[in-house]
Design brief:
3-stranded parallel sheet, alpha/beta, 216 residues, 7-stranded mixed sheet
């Protein structure tokens, strides 16, 4: 899969990830997001901005079809619309932080949830709960999980989707921060899955969930 990758790790995960296009706003947001900004409201604004950037670029990976729209003045405008059958799935809990960003872009989109717990000692992941949209096997799926350190949680969640007959190539993983280790694990396990992230770095801000939900 062609796309943008972080230069430092380009040889390791080349063509495995698509990265949101470079912009001063994106770089500044990533800096503040990963930093030690103490004001919770300010931190929340940065988090929402990064989520929105990633969600919008993830939606760009979904198939579109041409359509004609008649404007109030009677003119005909040729545009694009999303094909039917898209849905979102968040990996609880941190993935739920990305749901509103998706709903802001697609108000009527269906969203499912997968709860995966990891053993504190072995880091082995197990599925606790899964609620998926009806007919998900025929849908394009935006899988939302903002921070990936090992990749184990995402691998388990994708396994659940595949058990429900979702095609690997129909899954777009929306992510904000990812380690090179997690990137290699996921891309080697699911080579046909599209992955979109804002940053691949050795250190991932695992405090995201606590900061976002105010439980730190």
């Amino acid at each position: 899969m062609n796309g943008f990758v972080v230069r430092k790790h380009e040889s390791k995960i080349e063509k495995a990830h698509r990265r949101i296009p470079e912009a001063n706003m994106a770089w500044g947001s990533r800096r503040d997001f990963a930093g030690s900004l103490s004001n919770r409201d300010g931190k929340w604004v940065i988090q929402e901005l990064m989520i929105r950037l990633v969600i919008e670029e993830s939606l760009n990976q979904l198939p579109l079809s041409k359509c004609e729209v008649t404007t109030p003045t009677g003119s005909v405008y040729e545009g694009l619309k999303y094909q039917k059958g898209n849905c979102g799935v968040s990996i609880v809990r941190s993935g739920e932080a990305m749901e509103q960003g998706l709903r802001d872009c697609c108000r009527s989109i269906r969203i499912g949830k997968i709860l995966v717990e990891s053993d504190a000692d072995t880091h082995e992941a197990r599925v606790v709960y899964a609620r998926l949209p009806e007919g998900i096997s025929t849908r394009k799926v935006l899988l939302m999980y903002p921070i990936m350190s090992t990749g184990n949680t995402v691998i388990k969640a994708v396994t659940v989707l595949k058990e429900h007959h979702v095609k690997e190539e129909n899954i777009v993983l929306s992510n904000i921060f990812c380690t090179p280790f997690a990137a290699k694990m996921i891309t080697s396990t699911f080579p046909q899955m599209k992955i979109l992230t804002s940053e691949v770095h050795d250190i991932a801000p695992n405090h995201f969930g606590q900061k976002y939900f105010g439980t730190d």
